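INFO batch 0412 | record 1 of 1 | parsing
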Amino acid sequence: MKSDNKYESKILEDDIDKLSKNLYLESPDLWIDFTDKINDNKFDEMILFFASKYNFLSIIKHAITNELIDVNLPSKNKSYPTISQHLISVAQQNNSAEIYNYLKSLTDNEDSLNYKKTDDKTKNDNIDNANKDTSISYYPKFICKNCKTNIFDTGFSESEKIIYTYSPEENSVKETSRARMNKISCSNCNTPLENVTLEILESLCSIQNCSKCFTNLTIGGITDKVKMIFDDKINKFIPQSTTYHCSNCDNIINENQKNFFGL
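INFO prediction complete | emitting tokens
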């Protein structure tokens, strides 16, 4: 890895090693993927996501200054227009002050925000301001039943099946194949998520999809239900409130979806 000087290089190597250990504790599958990418010098959005989450600024700077990634490209998380905005949000949520200010300085000509570690109320206010800055009104949610966290915040992993066989030529075991298992686990507590696939989670990233059955509401349709109350003065039922539901599973659509569809 290239760096301006030996000191910066040592910091970078140490931070990569620390991040690697964190990911190993979080999920061995994530750690394998991380290790493969680092060995290939591939600093993609996933690598920078965890660097932002665990506050390793040297990794972020290394990837950006050496042009290993263009953070202005669209994010794989469809809730954010760019990789940079995604990482800014991650840094904000995890109180990674240095990373937040660094990324903001790249995207804003004005002075970077005076971001300080504060109590929970101030932190939540900052998160709200970041959401206004990026004009994001929708954020995907899938709550792990075990640890009760939103896996879109804490992360999730996909299992991989690796087959090894004995190699007489090398007198050792050798990897012969590698394939995705499409088994998803919560990265926060390592609990397998039953009947959940990567495709389902990706579908939740779109505000157009039902959060329960994942049907595209613009295709499946929405039904409205009006609650009526009896008015003694006029001696008839009158509308009191209206709710909107997915026509496929009757799940109530959320406020962000109502605003998005203009309901």
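INFO post-check: The chain has three domains: 6-133, 140-206, 208-261.
INFO record closed
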